[in-house]
Amino acid sequence: MTGSRPGLGVVGRRLAQFLLDEMLVFVPMLLLAIAVVWLFHPHGVALLTFLKIVFYTMLALDLVGQWFVNAWWPYRHGGQTPAMRWLRLRVVTLEGTHPSLAAFVVRELLMVVDGFAWGLTGIGVMLATRRRQRFGDVVARTVVVHVPRGRDGLGESADQAAFPGPDGDFGAVAGPQLALGRADVGLDRGHRHHE
Fold first, then answer.
1. Which domain does 174 fall in, by range?
2. Does residue 88 contact residue 147 with C-beta atoms inside 8 Å?
3. Sign of the CA dihedral with 173 first, then 174, 176, and 181 last
4. At a CB cut-off of 8 Å and minimum separation 6, what does 89 contact?
5. How far is CA 17 from the centre of its chain?
């Protein structure tokens, strides 16, 4: 991998993907909440209590929905959320392999950090890191890469590589070129370098 940093286009594409995935969960929850309030609302003083119950229930369902879309779904669908598939993005490990469920859970849990200050923390971290990783990616040791046409799972043959190839805008590639050097991952402790 070259020493050049990926272009800023990755940040914009990841923001679009994040907003699409958020809407995929939030809009149905909002419509369900409106329907419940409209169909089942009580009259009088109990209305405020009813609205609180609906709000907290929808908040809990939204959290479950976010976990499903951002952790479980990509784990089961080749590292892609629905919006990642639409925008041809994929989450891979730094070695270019499919991340574990634990890595997706870590990424989702650390969205609390990345989402701080309306997402400005995550954007700042992406702009500061060489591979345009948000904090959740750095900790989970993952990177988001571009999936070239024909490798998005639609009509892909069984003998094609499972992970994307080089992409100048994203600066990330699958396979050994993506992997960090021994010193970068701390594997050189107690080992001699063979050059």
1. 9-179
2. yes
3. positive
4. 13, 14, 17, 80, 144, 145, 146, 147
5. 8
Q: How far is CA 61 from CA 11, 66, 106, in A?
A: 28, 9, 20
pLDDT tens, position by position, 3-18: 445 566 778 899 999 9
Q: Report pLDDT digits (tens) over 161-174.
A: 344 444 444 444 44
Q: Residue 191 falls within a domain, yes or no?
A: no
Q: CA nearest 87: which of 27, 161, 11?
A: 11
Tally of structural domains, the chain: 1
**Closest alpha carbon to 91 in 176, 34, 15, 172:** 172
Does some domain include residue 185?
Answer: no
How far is the C-alpha of 31 from the C-alpha of 29, rounded, in Å?
6
Decide if 66 is inside a domain. Answer: yes
In contact, 166 and 173? CB cutoff 8 Å: yes
What does pTM read for this prediction? 0.71
Return d(Cα 63, Cα 59) in angstroms, integer.
Answer: 6
* CA–CA dist 176, 66 (Å, integer): 32
Rounded distance between C-alpha atoms, residue 12 and residue 51, angstroms: 36
Is residue 13 one of the residues assigned to a domain?
Answer: yes
